[in-house]
UniProtKB/TrEMBL annotation:
SUPFAM superfamilies: P-loop containing nucleoside triphosphate hydrolases. Keywords: ATP-binding, Nucleotide-binding, Transport. It comes from the Bacteria. SMART domains: AAA. PANTHER family: INTERMEMBRANE PHOSPHOLIPID TRANSPORT SYSTEM ATP-BINDING PROTEIN MLAF (PTHR43023:SF6), PROTEIN TRIGALACTOSYLDIACYLGLYCEROL 3, CHLOROPLASTIC (PTHR43023). Pfam families: ABC_tran. GO terms for molecular function: ATP binding. Residues 2-238 form the ABC transporter domain. This is ATP-binding cassette domain-containing protein.
Length: 244
């Protein structure tokens, strides 16, 4: 469980948002939506203390992560995986080496154990047999799946997805949505998804955080979002050109 309590953040005189509170239960998928520049990325960077707030707390396992000492902070950060926007694969490494990268850094596994884990991960994202291909030889959807295999290889408790379906066609987006659901259900990963893709939100999310007017404008389940008459939320969804 991650509990966000009364979080506020400014950069100089630029107030990003204030007094944000909500909870993310274990195994839940929460979507964070809102217009460009409303502070979605800044918010998720608080969840693993990459950014510190002006005030407020993020509680994980009964501890305010902003008060953790260096060693504990490192351990806490290792519980997070991140799927970066645009996949962020290393072009000089092949697919298998990309996925193996975190294991070389953060585990004591032998080379043989690492290759076995990489093969399993490739199978999980339906890319068995492509380990020796370079990222340049893969489609956008395949690169996203490799990035997902890499982000989950250390079996994180929490996975942050930064616009996982951006730039993908509807069919490939759907494959990624299905994988996000698979990861949440089968690996019991708690997922935090920053997205502009309302269709994806409806497919994958349990709960939705909508940032607007420098704060948490609306929070609820996807079912509640379908029924909501919150004007700002509806305007945002309508502008996303998706009717629900
Ligand atoms: N390191 C930083 N220093 C100063 N200002 C920052 C920093 N990071 C973000 N900001 C500011 O915080 C605000 C929110 O930015 P953020 O990137 O979180 O928005 P976003 O909702 O994720 O946008 P987008 O949907 O376009 O990715 C912006 O005004 C941005 O300029």
């Amino acid at each position: 469980m991650i509990e966000i309590r009364n979080l506020s953040k400014s950069f100089g005189s630029n107030l990003v948002w204030e007094d944000i509170s909500f909870k993310i239960a274990e195994g839940e998928t929460v979507a964070i939506i809102g217009r460009s520049g409303c502070g979605k990325s800044v918010l998720v960077k608080h969840l693993n203390a990459l950014i510190y707030p002006d005030s407020g707390e993020v509680i994980i396992d009964d501890k305010n992560i902003f008060e953790l000492e260096y060693v504990e902070l490192r351990k806490m950060r290792q519980r997070f995986g991140v799927l970066f926007q645009g996949s962020a694969l290393f072009d000089s490494l092949n697919t298998a080496e990309n996925i193996a990268f975190p294991l070389h850094y953060f585990s004591d596994l032998t080379d043989k154990e690492i290759s076995e884990k990489v093969e399993e991960a490739l199978e999980m994202v339906n890319l068995a047999g492509t380990g020796d291909r370079s990222p340049a030889e893969l489609s956008g959807g395949m690169r996203r799946r490799v990035a997902l295999a890499r982000a989950t290889i250390l079996q994180p408790d929490f996975l942050i997805y930064d616009e996982p379906t951006s730039g993908l066609d509807p069919q490939t987006s759907e494959e990624i949505n299905q994988l996000i659901i698979y990861m949440a259900e089968n690996l019991n990963i708690t997922s935090i998804v920053v997205t502009h893709d309302i269709h994806s939100v409806l497919k994958i999310a349990d709960n939705v955080v909508f940032l607007e007017n420098k704060g948490l404008c609306w929070y609820g389940t996807v079912e509640e979002m379908r029924e909501s008459d919150n004007k700002e939320l509806m305007d945002f969804i309508t502008a996303s050109e998706y009717k629900i």
